[in-house]
Write a structure and sequence with these properties.
heterodimer, A: about 180 residues, alpha/beta, 7 helices, B: about 375 residues, alpha+beta, 5-stranded mixed beta sheet, elongated
Chain lengths: ~180, ~375
């Protein structure tokens, strides 16, 4: 059985999470939101479905965003991880980028269209690392401009196609 | 005491005028003795043959006796030691006063520095705290705009696809749909401008945050930076002022190019506003100059605008202080310039101004930044 990659949002402020969820509503992605770092840590080691993209706030009680994303990295090494921060000082974010803990960061307040585009792009990158390149090529040739919006349908069709290979192994997960 | 002999040899002799170091003392003494025959605690500087110039206190009176010419009899008391001591005390006191003054000045400077530092900390904190709610407000707002656009499209779709147009029109009228949907758009547009203003302020507050990263300091040609600022600000001054740029060849100095350009731009825009406010018939003048000055490189921005009064001059570098109407100035421009020049670049920022004549802002940037 194929499990859909998810997008995780982590923030200690509920309104931020619902804004993000609202923003992604029109996109065919599975969204999960976590209010605070503990909820993520609880979940990430037990999670059955792969985490494709995880976006976390930086300053939260008890654990900061980088610690959260470090845990996500350990469980889902192929996930794409990002910080969404209100902090002016980005030295730690940049340092984490060089260590490979995160792939990028955004400031709060963010630009909706930019964030949408970047997250879709990140999920695309995630997918790319799993699908055989000939399949990717096929998808790209087929419907490049709208591919992100229609990706889910496209992929579902591909999976249901009997000739499809590699469905079971398209994500790997390390458990503690 | 006078060093001219013993008591016997002096008694009855007339007192030589030359004993007095200060001839006016002698004149004054004679004058006083003419008026009354007693003097008390008359302070003189006298000449001692052995000890040189001394200070003495003279007490005495005119004595009149039968058969003798009236004569002066008195006691001269040497108070040099005491006076010298007092002098020393006085001098020490003066020095203390001076030191005190200096400390006061230093403290004032420190206080000002402290104020700016705490403003920086506060600004960073406020910016962070505001950014969170601003984050979802802005996002939701933009989503809401999309929703309203969708509602409008929905209305169109209804009319296109549903046959009962008359009934629909009645319903829409009942709820005042036409007005609501159009006003919703205007309302969102207007609110957007408020949003933009808040975003702009918070963004500029962020400039207060200290990020002492040396790699941002790259050698740059100040003339290029100033030219860039002049070009960027052209729209602000071209209708009110002629701008001249006098420059000399200056070798590159380390700086945060974007920030210096921002500061210069800020001063040019202020100059343009000052000229505009004056409301001259002909164009005003802005003179931008760069020159080499000792261990620093200077940029001067001079205008013949309204000028700044002494009272306002004291406050111009305070955050949120502005003389411009709401919406035009946030009151952060000059305080950020101050932060950038003084704190980040360890330079100097000075202002000369006269009401009705104009202002000059001068930036001094050190040629070398301490590691």
């Amino acid at each position: 059985m194929v499990k859909w990659p998810m997008i995780w949002f982590v923030d200690d402020e509920a309104p931020i999470l619902s804004s993000l969820k609202r923003l992604m509503h029109s996109l065919p992605f599975e969204i999960m939101i976590f209010e605070g770092p503990e909820a993520v840590i609880d979940r990430v080691f037990k999670e059955e479905y792969p985490v494709g993209v995880c976006v976390s706030d930086y300053r939260m009680p008890n654990k900061n965003g980088l610690e959260v994303l470090q845990a996500v990295l350990e469980c889902f090494p192929k996930s794409r991880r990002f910080l969404l921060t209100g902090q002016g000082d980005l030295s730690r974010a940049i340092e984490a980028m060089t260590r490979g803990v995160i792939h990028g960061y955004w400031y709060k307040p963010w630009e909706n269209s930019q964030l949408k585009k970047d997250i879709s792009q990140a999920l695309w990158e995630y997918w790319k690392s799993y699908w055989p390149s000939y399949l990717m090529k096929w998808i790209m040739e087929k419907n490049m401009p709208g591919v992100m919006l229609n990706l889910r349908q496209e992929v579902r069709r591909l999976i249901e196609n009997p000739g499809f290979v590699g469905g079971e192994t398209w994500f790997s997960k390390k458990r503690p | 005491m006078l060093g001219v002999g013993n008591k016997e040899s002096l008694l009855g002799k007339s007192w030589p005028e030359s004993t007095f170091m200060n001839p006016t003392d002698w004149d004054l003494l004679l004058k006083m003795l003419k008026e009354k025959d007693r003097i008390r605690d008359f302070e003189i500087i006298y000449n001692s043959k052995t000890e040189g110039s001394r200070i003495g206190l003279l007490n005495g009176s005119i004595q009149e006796r039968e058969g003798v010419d009236p004569y002066f009899s008195g006691v001269l008391k040497d108070i040099s030691e005491r006076v010298n001591q007092m002098n020393e005390v006085w001098q020490a006191n003066m020095e203390l006063l001076k030191a005190n003054e200096q400390i006061k000045k230093a403290q004032e400077k420190l206080l000002e520095k402290e104020k700016m530092a705490s403003v920086g900390v506060l600004a960073a904190g406020v910016a962070h705290e505001i950014n969170n709610p601003l984050g979802f407000l802005k996002s939701n707002f933009s989503t809401l705009k999309d929703y309203v656009a969708t509602f409008k499209n929905m209305e169109k779709a209804f009319f296109e696809r549903i046959p009962e147009k008359a009934a629909m029109e009645v319903i829409l009228k009942e709820f005042d749909w036409e007005y609501l949907i159009n006003d919703a758009e205007t309302l969102l547009e207007e609110s957007q401008s408020g949003f933009d203003r808040i975003l702009e302020i918070v963004k500029s507050l962020k400039s207060f945050v200290h990020e002492d990263k040396k790699e941002d300091f790259l050698p740059a040609d100040i003339n290029t930076v100033v030219k860039e600022a002049i070009t960027l600000s052209k729209n602000e001054w071209k209708y009110h002022a002629d701008l001249d740029f006098l420059h000399q060849e200056i070798s590159p100095i380390p700086m945060h190019q974007g920030e210096i350009s921002q500061v210069v731009l800020n001063f040019i825009v202020n100059a343009a506003h000052a000229i505009k406010e004056k409301g001259l018939q002909e164009n005003g003048r802005i003179l931008v100059k760069t020159y080499d000055e000792g261990p620093t490189v200077a940029v001067s921005i001079k205008d013949n605008g309204v000028g700044i009064s002494q009272e306002i001059k004291k406050k111009i570098f305070e955050p949120f202080f502005t003389t411009k109407p709401v919406g035009i100035g946030s009151g952060l421009g000059l305080s950020i310039s101050y932060e950038i020049i003084k704190k980040k670049h360890h330079g100097k920022l000075s202002v000369k101004s006269k009401v009705g004549i104009g202002s000059e802002f001068i930036i001094h940037l050190p040629k070398e930044q301490e590691a």
